[in-house]
Write a structure and sequence with these properties.
By secondary structure, this protein is an all-alpha fold. The protein is 81% helix and 0% strand. Helix 2 packs antiparallel against helix 3 and helix 4 runs antiparallel to helix 5.
Length: 96
Amino acid sequence: LKIYELVQHEGNALPRLYLCVTVGAVIARTDQAHSEETLEDLAAMLAVVQHPVRGLFLRYYFLQNVKDNFLRMDVARALRYLTRNFRESLSLWSRA
């Protein structure tokens, strides 16, 4: 968790989000106790990106890194993450 807090101090927003997704995916994969909290935090951070193309690429990167975690969750929670990500991706896509 210390690395996750450290990468949040990166100066630029987009590289910080990519670093947070990378480190957060590893934390969610290895530490089951903090898995839900980390995924909620990442989902909230992804909403910050307003540029359509950058936001779509970041959301794709997020899904590719955390897709294994969805198999370990209950179905309702995994669907909630996926539908939220899909809804926000559609709003970004409509602005592209």
